[in-house]
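hey team, just a heads up i'm posting the complex here instead of the shared drive bc the drive is being weird again. everything in one block, sequence lines first with there labels, then the predicted structure for the whole assembly after. its two chains so it's a bit long, scroll down
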Amino acid sequence: MKIVVPIKFVPDLVEELTIDPSGVALDTAWLRLIINEFDDHAVEQAILLKERGGGQVIVSTVEADGSDDFLFTAAAKGADQLIKMTGDFTGVNNHALARAYAELLKELKPDLVLTGVQAHNDLDGSVGPLLAEYLGMPYVGYVAGITLADGSVIARKEYPGGLIAEIDVKLPAVLGIQASEQPPRYVAYSKIRQVMGTAKIEERPNADLNLDGGVSISRMFQPEAAERAEMIDGDADAVAEKIVAIIKEAGVL
Amino acid sequence: MEITLSPLSQSFSKTFITSLFETENGERIRTCLQCGTCSGVCPFGYIMQYPPGKMIGSLRSEFFDKVIKTDSVWMCVSCYACTEFCPSQIPITAALMTRAKEEMLLAGNIPAELQAALENTQRYGNPLGESPRKRADWTIGIQPEINILAKTRQPVDVLWFVGDYASYHPRMQSATKALAKILNALGIKFGILGPEEYSDGDSQRLAGERGLFEMMAQKNGQIFRRYKFDEIITTDPHAYNALKNEYPALGISYPVKHYTQFLVERMEQLQPLLKNEVKAKIAYHDPCYLGRANDVFDEPRALLNAIPGVELVEMSHQRTNSLCCGGGGGGMWLDGFQWEKAHTRLSEWRVREAVAAGAEILAVACPYEPPRFEDAVKTIQAASHLKVREIAELLAESMNN
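-- predicted structure starts here --
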């Protein structure tokens, strides 16, 4: 079973985010990137499947600050192959990322593709469904549990309200991971150090970015505090009267 | 909590015990009398399936792999009580407990809270997961301005290694500011590393992350080499322990003191500044890594006695048998895990002891303690009157004009 996990890095919210002078993008001077949490779970799920049923796990990413560290950590956890796409990814959106990954995956011919179901900087949709479409594969999102079957997988999909569905998905397929079956495991730092000396990161230069389908940002700003709280004093009757007046004025009654 | 483990080979006991012999004085494990003192004095020994003595016994009987499957190892708070009282002088904490935790980590078995603290340390240089850029934010507004060496590049007499909790924890920041005030009042020419400072790494080391500790130490060592100073003082007994006892083996060696030792050296200058009365019965809690591990018992008491109005009372556990607050050696990040097992906290026991000793103030000298003891005070009815203060805060209070 060949499992490929395409991942992406997102702004680390531990650092304060600021808007750059253009007013439509984040200032990158102090910006730090961190693995998309859902992609971290996708890597864990892939390793779990390998531990259960054998096979190969390939983790692939786009060149970014800190991407090497993450790839080595994935190798220390049990990933077999590490691929980094190099090149200029300025202004990359999820459509472009999915197209770039589709090129790579057509070459790799995976049985199963696991990727995080979403990321907090998704503007033009999530990578999973886009990737599935470009690859012509089925997609199930919000997966929190996978059982291996013959030529297919059974994906446990969470719905709002506590409903869970078990969906039989023929392989090859793309699954959007909501949560791995156990939290991403810890790797002792000495193990990561060791792996840095032995594991190799394959670099694949990426062809030109195709940003079609993305959105264009007209304005990016910090949430603006609006003062719309009016404190109403008085006894219950007075307060009720005031509330009715406010509602009438707002044109609701 | 169910710990699921990757299968360990049957010869694990053999290879593990051999690795212990390679640690400093580790071969003393062979001389264990199975007297049970360590298990008895261990604060959580009563609840471990394999307290320290039984762990050594199981090592000898070659079924240590069973021990690793229980929660016993993670109940250890690295308080050094076992080491202190072992009649065979076996360095149990360093040679057994720390090594056992290293094995647990290598097998990937670790409670979630501790995992987060270790991952944060690796990524942000501090276990709290705060931005390294904000490490010196506590200095904002302080006059005279605190000398952050990266900015001023001035040679100083003293490098003040502030530490993680003293820099970031909201409760501790008032104590850190108090110490800054005292140092300024004494005219000390000091500087801090600010955003360039990394975690001292000692608690992470004791929690089993030797590799992470070495990385932090090496990073700190590189930064130290950039600046000129005569000695290092620390807010934190754990940083003191690391810099004094562990860093030199990595080639990083500087004279280091805990702030209480540094201030006692300057008692002649300090005493006249302590003008205000702090009229209270004060119990001093000996932190594990200042007291038991490094034999510093008198200096903190001397400082407290120098404050007019103070009456020192001693708790039933004191000096070498002081009761751990539960924070060190990773305990700070095993709090939930240990509480689920024990349904009590060491900090709660200690607070009850302070109350029993008639204390109105519990004086501490370690940045883990104010938040731990104050949380304990909140949960114990009988302790609602008890105040928790860092020694620096009490000194500053006495100096206030």
